[in-house]
Specification:
Blueprint (H helix, E strand, L loop, with lengths): L3 H34 L16 E6 L7 H5 L11 E6 L2 H13 L4 E5 L9 H12 L4 E5 L3 E2 L4 H10 L6 E3 L2 E3 L5 H8 L3 E2 L3 E2 L3 H11 L9 E5 L11 E2 L3 E3 L3 H18 L11 H16 L3 H23 L5 H23 L3 E4 L2 E6 L3 E4 L12
Parallel strand pairs: 1-2, 1-4, 2-3, 6-11, 7-12
Antiparallel strand pairs: 4-10, 5-12, 6-10, 8-9, 13-14, 14-15
Helix pairs in contact: 1-7, 1-9, 1-10, 6-11, 8-11, 9-10
Length: 381
């Protein structure tokens, strides 16, 4: 039977093993990302075959200053086959869509009004009717906050149709270049996409590893699939060109908490997710190294943070051309120092707010809307 000292020693060894796994995923993401995202397909990899028609579903969620700039590229895609744009109802955004329709009359576009409530997510409720009305077998779901390069759709469809074993193509999103410190913060991680991992560094790290090892993981922000299940099985989703998102820092901070709460209610093991953050991981590793080797925890922690920063910066370069090193350092420090606080705040309550409505999350990710306690206003006539 192990005594307490032996138990602590082997616990430290276990922590060190987890620590080594973190470094391994960093290195894998860098090497695989460099090859996968900067690799030009040859003619043998992508034979010139006719591409099928496409239905692009764009759920609208109100108007923001970037909505017009985000939607316009989808009217100018360089796609050799016919594609249609299907917009889901959002009254304030209709004006923007109609202005783009007048400017681009040659693109087949439909605007669907009304939603069918099947859950707490208004985006999904809006898309149900649109999905059934899509005229093509290939469906691309793309958030209204995304931009896309002209050749990205062709690249995604080629990835899907290259093999009958491919059933899904996803994108890794990144943030458009923006001026000012708020834009810098968003690019290196204060923005969180559907699965609460950080876009420029940790998010990319996870998705690159998942793609390499064939782990199916969907980002509902942008994904391409067949409407009818014509594939023989579903293979690991294939990375395509990167998507772009353009939103504001405050809303994305709230979204990050939102997804942390949701993941916790669906997969309880995500309670261990903060261990993948540099600060907590470094603190545990410093303790473990001290137990095993008697090296000063301060030395280990400092070396850990420096190495983590360097590898994050390398991943960021692989994902997108970066800004200056000083700007990255400042934004990285802000993101790392706030990440644990956001996790704690997300885990402290099962209540969340979404689109000005409050919900309580039950196990399994099922949400129950909390009735508003606000009394109706009475106006005198």
């Amino acid at each position: 039977m192990l005594d307490m000292e032996g138990f602590i020693f082997w616990l430290a060894v276990f922590v060190l093993c987890l620590w080594c796994c973190q470094w391994y995923t960093h290195l894998v993401a860098i090497i695989y990302g460099k090859w996968r995202l900067h690799h030009k397909r040859s003619s043998t990899e992508c034979p010139p075959v006719p591409l099928p028609g496409m239905s692009i579903i764009k759920p609208l969620t109100g108007v923001d200053p970037n909505l017009y700039a985000n939607l316009e590229p989808f009217f100018n895609l360089q796609y050799p086959a016919q594609y249609e744009l299907l917009f889901c109802d959002s009254d304030p955004a209709i004006i923007v869509v109609k202005s783009l329709l007048l400017k681009n009359p040659n693109v087949r576009t439909e605007l669907f009004m009304g939603a069918k409530k099947i859950g707490m997510n208004p985006k999904i409720n809006n898309m149900i009717t649109v999905y059934g009305a899509a005229s093509h077998d290939l469906i691309l779901i793309s958030d209204s906050g995304l931009r896309m390069k002209q050749d990205t759709l062709s690249d995604m469809v080629q990835s899907l149709t290259a093999s009958c074993h491919v059933g899904l193509v996803r994108q890794i999103p990144f943030v458009c270049n923006r001026n000012g410190f708020a834009g810098i913060l968003e690019k290196v991680g204060l923005i969180d996409e559907a699965y609460s991992v950080f876009l420029g560094t940790q998010h990319a790290n996870m998705y690159l590893n998942a793609d390499l090892y064939g782990i199916n993981c969907v980002t509902v922000m942008s994904c391409l699939f067949r409407k009818k299940k014509s594939a023989v099985g579903v293979s690991p989703s294939v990375l395509s060109l990167l998507g772009r998102i353009h939103e504001t820092t405050p809303s994305q901070t709230s979204r990050r908490e939102w997804w942390a709460k949701l993941r916790q209610s669906i997969v309880p093991l995500t309670l261990l997710e903060p261990h993948s953050e540099s600060l907590l991981c470094g603190l545990l590793a410093s303790w473990a190294v001290h137990v095993v080797t008697s090296v000063s925890p301060l030395v280990t922690f400092g070396a850990h943070l420096l190495a983590w920063l360097i590898l994050d910066y390398v991943i960021f370069i692989v994902m997108q051309c970066p800004f200056s090193k000083c700007e990255f350092l400042l934004a990285w420090l802000v993101r790392e120092s706030t990440s644990l606080f956001l996790f704690l705040r997300a885990y402290s309550s099962s209540e969340l707010t979404w689109r000005n409505k409050r919900y309580l999350l039950d196990w399994g990710g099922i949400g129950r809307e909390v009735p508003s306690t606000r009394k109706p206003q009475i106006s005198e006539v």
